[in-house]
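Protocol step 4 of 6: structure prediction from sequence.
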Amino acid sequence: MAGLRPVQIWVPDTRRPDFAAECRRQSRLVAKADKRDTGLQQLMDDALADMDGWTE
């Protein structure tokens, strides 16, 4: 009635017995990909350095 509508978001079920193992598996895949992509690390370092002087 206030111009809003409901939104349904599906998220992983953290109660599943294999949830932690799947998190570890995916984290390792991401870490391997990040390690191979040196340009990404440089981009992240540059972005972090560019935040000097920012305030909340």
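Step 5 (inspection) to follow. Helices lie at 19-36, 38-49.
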